[in-house]
Amino acid sequence: MDRESKIAKGDKDLQVMKAGAMLKKVKSKSWKKQRHFRLQEDGQTIWYKSRWAGTSHSTFSVADVEVVREGHQSEVLLSVAEEFPADLCFTLVFRGRRGNLDLVAESPSEAQAWIRGVSKLIQNAESMDDKERVDQWIWDWFQKADKNKDGRMNFKEVRTLLKMMNVDMNEEYALHLFTLADKSKSGCLENEEFVQFYKILTERKDMWRVFQDYSRDGQTLTLAELKDFLRQEQQEGERSWEHAQELIDRYEPSETAKKQGAMSIDGFQMYLVSPEGAILDPQRLTLNQDMSQPLSHYFICSSHNTYLMEDQLRGQSSQEAYIQALKRGCRCVEVDCWDGPNGEPVVYHGHTFTSKILFRDVITTLGEYAFKASEFPVILSLENHCSVEQQRVMAQLLDTILGDMLLREPLDGLVHQELPSPHDLKGKILLKAKKIGSLEESETLTDEATDEVSDEAEPESPSAENLSAEAICLHDKKSKFSRELSDLVVYCKSVHFHSFEYSRLHSKCYEMSSFSESKARKLAKDTGTEFVHHNSRQLSRVYPSGMRTDSSNYNPQELWNVGCQIVALNVQTAGLEMDLNDGLFRQNGCCGYVLKPDFMRNDDSFDPERPQDRDGYTSLQLSIQVISGQQLPKVNQKEGSIVDPLVRVEIYGVSQDQAKQETSYIDNNGFNPLWNETLNFIIHVPELALVRFVVEDYDKASRNDFMGQFTVPFTCIQPGYRHIHLLSKDGTAIPLSTLFVNVKISEVTTEV
User: Fold this and answer.
1) Residue 231 in marked binding region
2) What is the pLDDT of residue 468?
3) What InterPro entries has UniProt attached to this entry (predicted)?
4) Residue 129: exposed, middle, or buried by beta-carbon count in 10 A (0-12, 13-18, 19+)?
5) Which residues does 255 contact at the CB level (< 8 Å), separation at least 6?
6) What secondary structure letter does DSSP report for 333?
7) DSSP 123-150
């Protein structure tokens, strides 16, 4: 029996969930429908259907749920608060970009049973070690394949299972494996026999060969042999002897081998599939960078039109979008403010049909979630289209709701020649907007000033009427803004960009400009070195073209190449661009700040178009042997469908480093495909390079289907034999789905 089932057996809350309940699924004030929910026997899957749906139903895994919120803790449930008391309500928040599930129980006790039950299952799933996860995975497959639910599997059910697992195996060989596992000779596999069948099926011959290369007796690696492997293959150098003993203590399951100071093939495999055996150095996942440098010396994880859940014309505006962005580590979020009814400013995408939310609610959400994922400062980028009266309301709301979190004046009362550091600004929210006068002067100005209120230099997006003359006029007209709001702007004063020369001669460190993606790209191409210098002193924000009404994204790498810190993306839109963003900011504790390379922070002349001209230039060769894949996901869920996987390695960085290479495809095997193909790259600026591994299902008649990916900064790669743990298009982990590679990095001694 699996771990979940054992827990469920003795737990009253989980028993209530297994018995099932009629819960109201709520999507809006007008959409509230009864659904029958229940926890399935596996203790991990929640099943639900409407009473009118016949045999059709839906399911989701508890592993996909991040947290349970109790009461009216979502916009939807707040909107129906008068109808349904808080003690009946709860929200399931899913990982990735999937929307919340808002539910209303029939009694407080029933609500509590589901809240506690789901919370226990989440905690249980998160506390599993690697072996328990594998055991759970095996049990899940057993449950799926046991069609008649008799706790045994006949050969026909096993054949169906193999198709479900992405394996195309001839019947004779499948029967051979089945017979090996059927110790009882009953013609059926029971629980333990199925575990044996799975172990035979998942034997890693690729890892066995590596093990054999270093094991003299073919059975174990002695401490000295493991040290040799770590030194020669994993390139660990002097640390290898000490680390070899640590690995045996940590991963070797056999107490006998441990006492002998040796590692078996089982321990070796456990090490290589663990975080220590991953391509991304686990030490880089922790907060490990100097956080005491000026803000301008960091790349900052940033969101554009943060309030939108979907597209920019008709999409939903939501506080939930801010929660999701902040949870992802975003440290710069955007608010588009417009005059609302009853003197209350609203947030939405102006001149479009996107829905509206209250500025008050956005700031409340920001105050609650700003520092849950990271303690470092959040920049609130204000797109201000409000009248002076409602700007005063905004200032009052910022002041009262955010309290001490809101930075109101320079840290020590003095204005320095460079910006303060993320460390200095821990726990602070910085307002980015227009400001009356300078930070240095006493400001004996009037309570109102005239200027362009809108921060961005061009219309961000066409209106629903396709950029009508009225919309352009509204965007461009000169407007007044309030002293109260201006006084809250300290280190992020929005100014118009004139030229790099003007900025060098006249601009202050706390002044920053916003650039459309096209303007920023042109500056990067024509005056890259000057852009790098500018960004060493001042902050720059780049935002997507106004024509991207579908909330698509531009490639952020081009702007990181010239040191732009705030490269704002539509984080609600999955794809390559967000893969790169997630890849860059996965390091340094996912804190939302990544220290730029030293040649982008000092007075060096770095031209991303001519990297070989910089002092100390050395290019590197990256050699990646793509060995095998394990348990790759199915693209087409039809029972007989099996993928034909290929692997593509993509390099993103300066223009000379941009490259792609791919393996051949493997026919009908997503379970354990074997490639053994080597791809080679030359990297000119490793400090800026990102390496993206993509797995696709080959299709000769149409475009290949995406299966999974993982993106890693070049500087965070661990060389040697490594596993790459694949992520879905949405950025969530695909359980047990990996690539096995051998990575070699060396200096290029001659031009290749």
Assistant:
1) no
2) 37
3) C2_dom, C2_domain_sf, EF-hand-dom_pair, EF_Hand_1_Ca_BS, EF_hand_dom, PH-like_dom_sf, PH_domain, PI-PLC_fam
4) exposed
5) none
6) E
7) HHHHH--HHHHHHHHHHHHHHHH-TT-S
Determine if residue 305 is labeled as part of a ligand binding site: yes
Asked if residues 337 and 359 have their Cβ atoms less than 8 Å apart, the reply is: yes
Computed from CA positions of residues 596, 600, 606, 608, in that sequence, does the dihedral angle turn out positive or negative? positive
What is d(CA 251, CA 51) in angstroms, rounded to the nearest whole number?
A: 49
Residues in the chain: 752
Q: How far is CA 426 from CA 387, 418, 491, 565, 746, in A?
A: 32, 17, 14, 18, 39
Q: Would the annotation count 724 as a binding residue? A: no
Sign of the CA dihedral 573, 577, 581, 584?
Answer: positive
- pTM given for the model: 0.89
Q: What's the DSSP call for residue 665?
A: P
**H or E element in which residue 174 lies:** helix 171-181
User: Could you state, in chain order, the average pLDDT of each consecutive group of 10 residues for the chain (752 residues)?
Assistant: 54 94 94 94 86 73 93 94 97 92 97 96 85 76 74 85 78 87 89 83 91 95 97 93 95 93 94 96 96 98 94 85 95 97 94 90 97 98 96 98 97 92 98 92 53 48 38 44 94 96 95 97 96 97 92 96 98 96 97 97 89 90 98 78 94 98 95 96 98 96 95 98 97 93 91 48
CB-side neighbour CA atoms (13 Å) of 678? 8
The pLDDT score that the predictor gives to residue 134 is: 75
Residue 541 marked in a binding site: yes
Confirm whether 57 is a catalytic residue. no
> Is 304 among the residues known to form the active site?
yes
The Cα–Cα gap between 515 and 430 comes to 20
501: CB partners within 8 A, 6+ apart: none
Strand pairing partners for 432?
381, 492
3-state DSSP assignment of residue 284: helix
Using a 10 angstrom Cβ sphere, with 0-12 exposed, 13-18 middle and 19 or more buried, the burial of residue 61 is middle
141 burial (CB, 10 Å; 0-12 / 13-18 / 19+) is middle
> What DSSP line would sit under 338-375, residue for residue?
E--GGG--EES-TTS----EEHHHHHHHHHHHTTTS-S
Residue with tokens 């979630």: 369
Instruction: Check residue 391 and report its DSSP letter.
Output: H
348 is in an annotated binding site: no
d(CA 622, CA 412): 47
User: Looking at 304, 385, 533, 725, which residue is catalytic?
Assistant: 304
* Of 742, 657, 727, nearest in space to 279 by CA: 742
Q: Between the CA of residue 83 and those of 22, 88, 93, 363, 642, what are the distances in Å? A: 17, 11, 22, 26, 49
- Give CA–CA dist 543/550, Å, rounded: 14
Q: Residue 423: count other Cβ atoms within 10 Å of its Cβ.
A: 14
**Measuring CA to CA, which residue among 393, 395, 480, 398 is closest to residue 445?**
480
Instruction: Please tell me which residue in 72, 243, 297, 349 is annotated as part of the active site.
Output: 349
Partnered with residue 713 across adjacent β-strands are 690
Classify each residue of 209-230 as buried b or exposed e, where b means 16 or more C-beta atoms within 10 Å of its C-beta: ebbeebbeeeebbbbebbbbbb
Tell me what pLDDT residue 639 has: 60
Q: What is the pLDDT of residue 132?
A: 77
Residue pair 633/165 in contact (Cβ under 8 Å)? The answer is no
Nearest C-alpha neighbor of 164 from the set 633, 628, 630, 629: 633
